Amino acid sequence: MSEAEAEGPAPEPAAAKKRRVQSGVSTAGAVLSAHVAGNAELFPQIMALHVPPGAVVADVTFGGGVFWRRVPPGRYRLLPSDLATGTDCRALPYADGSVDAVVLDPPYMEGLLRAKAETRGGLGSHAALRSAYSSGREVAGAASGRWHQAVLDLYLEASGEARRVLRDHGALIVKCQDEVSANRQELTHVQIVCALAEIGFYARDLFVLVRPNRPNVARLVRQVHARKNHSYFLVFQKVPEGESVARYRTRDVPVAPAAKGGGPPRGA
Fold first, then answer.
1. pLDDT (tens digit, 9 = 90+) per residue, 61-73?
2. Which CATH architecture has domain 32-238?
3. pTM value?
4. Which one in 5, 66, 144, 179 has a CA-CA gap of 20 to 30 Å to 111?
């Protein structure tokens, strides 16, 4: 008997430890946070990244539908409305927790919110804004704050109403722009983020949109602040009642099964 046979068979070699392989692919096509483009170019990317197909989306300041021009038809169950259709974004006709996402783009120029028609903004190229996005205070009750505060009031009231109609973890997409009002720098996007955190919205994402052309200044006496040539899309998620906004983590926006009527239940 050989020495090898006396000692028995050789031990099995230890199994090689599996090498961890990272998932994902290399790409230069990721959605970026800053864009030199128009609303119609950026908005579809925001929707594709944050709102799943089939979602019920209430665009409560629809206007001419510019945001939706390049969104594939039928991808979402769209509910378009604005003051021109008789729907105030602060008093939506939808039941509580019936919508997956809300799109909000009210006027961010304080001049459009003045109660008197003779002093209200919206002339020339802004005429369409005057008719579709004026404050609506003539039919919606007492006036709110003045100047920039009127802009904030509109955003916050509309966001509070959006929270009511959104499902838990639903998305609120807000378009806004900073402004100088009464010779005071107003960082509107910061004010909105802070205020919405107070009412239960988590700031999920932010996009900067830079206009591709230079704005024209009709009458410049002395420049004090930089002229704004960018705006923002802010993406929020509704934090369920009783949960902490500070501890909330991004999660997929839930989509309810399609209703037979094709939309969310209406409010009473």
1. 999 999 999 999 9
2. 3-Layer(aba) Sandwich (3.40)
3. 0.80
4. 66
